[in-house]
Amino acid sequence: MSDHPPPGAERRPLAGRANFLLSQLGFHIAQAFAARLAPLGIAPNHFGLLMHLEHGEGSTQQQLADALGIHRKVMVGLLDDLEHRGLVERRRHPGDRRAHAIHLTGAARKLLPRARRVADQHEEEVLAALDAGERAQLIAVLQRLADHTGNPPGVHPGLHHPAARSPHPVASARIA
């Protein structure tokens, strides 16, 4: 690898660099999404885990951690937070007395459709400047880049960090 940048690269403005633009957009999109989820009493990492749980309900904590590539201590913290918010419950696993099966609560089942609408609305606003073909092309290119960097499909790196704690559990949020 050369210590010299490609010709002209050192003079390229930030607005012409893919890394900068992806970072700028990613930061903006993540902050805006977190703000939009806040009235529901959850953070983006909660949303991601709830979405995975919806399709893998009854999984053990360890199975979830393995599937998402999350350290088990981080998974325990996320699940503790979701349990505190009344969104998941741990039940004895029917096949292993030492393990807990994770299940969504009724509150989570009410919350998820609302959270998905927030996510859909947010994505629609972010992509409003693109037509359907451009959207499909952008998603395909982003998927290729994510694959190339080794990111597992459908797993956000933000799940690897402890949950953002809200002072108010979901039960006090407006979820009706």
Tell me the helix content.
40-55%
Give, in spatial order, the strands making up the sheet with the most strands. 1-2
Major beta-sheet overview: 2 strands, antiparallel
With helices defined by DSSP (H or I, 4 residues minimum), what is the helix count?
6
- Give the termini distance in whole angstroms: 57 Å
Radius of gyration: 19 Å
Q: How many DSSP E strands? A: 2
Shape: elongated
Low-confidence stretches: 163-176
The average pLDDT value, as a whole number, equals 85
By secondary-structure content and strand pairing, the structural class works out as: mainly alpha
Along the chain, the helix and strand elements come as HHHHEEHH
Strand residues, percent: 5-15%
Describe the structure in your own words.
By secondary structure, the chain is mainly alpha-helical. It is 52% helix and 9% strand. The chain is built from 6 helices and 2 strands. It has helices at 18-37, 44-55, 61-68, 72-84, 106-126, 132-148; strands at 88-93, 96-104. The chain has a two-stranded antiparallel ribbon. The model is unreliable at 163-176 (pLDDT under 50).
How is the secondary structure organized here?
Blueprint: H1 18-37, H2 44-55, H3 61-68, H4 72-84, E1 88-93, E2 96-104, H5 106-126, H6 132-148
Antiparallel strand pairs: 1-2
Helix pairs in contact: 1-5, 3-4
Summarize this, please?
The chain is mainly alpha-helical and 176 residues long.
List its traits.
176 residues, mainly alpha, two-stranded antiparallel ribbon, 9% strand, disordered C terminus
